[in-house]
From TrEMBL:
Gene3D superfamilies: Amino acid/polyamine transporter I. The keyword Cell membrane applies. This is Amino acid permease. GO terms for molecular function: transmembrane transporter activity. It holds the Pfam family AA_permease_2. It comes from Marinobacter halophilus. InterPro entries: AA/rel_permease1 (IPR002293), APC_superfamily (IPR050367). The lineage of its organism: Bacteria, Pseudomonadati, Pseudomonadota, Gammaproteobacteria, Pseudomonadales. Keywords: Cell membrane, Membrane, Transmembrane, Transmembrane helix.
Amino acid sequence: MSREQDRATRYQEGSLTLPGTVMLGTGVMIGAGIFALTGQMAQMTGALFPLAFLAAALIASFSAYSYIKISNTWPSAGGIGMYLHKAYGNRLPTAFNALLMYFSMVIAQSFLARTFGSYTMQLFGGDESGRMVPALGVALIIAAFLINLLGNRMVQGVASVIGVLKIGGILIFGLVGVWVADRVSVEVSSPGEAGTMGSFLGATALGILAFKGFTTITNSGSEVKDPKRNVGRAIVISIAVCVVIYTLVGFAVASNLSLAEIIQTQDYSLAAAARPALGEYAVWFTIALAMMATAGGILASIFAVSRMLAMLTEMKLVPHRHFGMPGSIQKHTLVYTVVLGIILTAFFDLSRIAALGIVFYLIMDIAIHWGVLRYLRKDIKANVWVPTVAILLDLLALGGFVWVKLNTDPFVIGVAVVTMIVIAVAEQIFLTKSGEAAGSDHEESHKHHH
């Protein structure tokens, strides 16, 4: 019991209100999704990309069911790590999938950081050298790290202010963009080489990245006031808000830029869409919005990710080294998370970061639903058909995405596969060793008792 108390005291129960939780969720969701993914999705599936956002929302809604059911039964600040543990115990599937989730969240931070850099450089006419975008991204991650060191209330306060400004601003952008567009008809053109259905599923998988922020809400489970009611509500509200905003913005972009222009400006397509519609001031407005949105997203994301790694460390599922650092485990996991994010931001471009993130996330998501079907169904009183449909939809999207990437950028699929093999092997070695150590400790204490 002392272990449970020890874990509970670190987290401030009831410190997040329902609106605060929704802001954290939408903060992560709207940060990456709308600013950087619009152009990439258009590149994959042509002008059907606003529909790909809707398809992604549908998949996210089916996915959310398992998370809501588990977090209603066991609210926890460890979120996904704890869910996997409930399903698979102290075994490799728990550690492997939790680390996939961890990496997909770190990848999301790098994605946000690069997006921040891409938009910011539009104020200076772009980044010819290619060095400024990663440099700005790295600076943003360091700033978010410093704010995170100041604690919960600060994070929630800053994230809420940014959230309100951002959602208001993006709604204005979407409404005005559609209003002034000379053609709200969306031109349909031929998708990429991978075939229509594969391309649409691939774009849908990318769209899921724009909704996966709802898992941030489950990670702050035990810190939400009245979590059994509010975690589920916050998830549903966040997804609904995002559907409205993404659809609006998708149509605003599609009606102000030709498909070729959307693809050409894929890293900053919202700023580009503002230019013909509303002139240079609108571009500045959009860039300011993007900078706020990505900054808020990183802030909330670092907060959630370091939590999860701390939880895995406490569960003895991942090795932990202090490297001589003072402070709690959570402070250390914050440092690891930031260092990893900086490395990714410095060396990977946007579309590759997104590709890694989506592969890791979908595999982890399938593991959660399988855990519900196989082990937790009775405990959490879940229907069979919802997680089953969620698994099938995930597999469809993942299959489409991998197919498109094998045709266009096989390197990134190779990196994903190698990374997963390394994680699995390293975890298996660690779990075997720590199992043997625990066994020998047990024998020692047994001898002493005799």
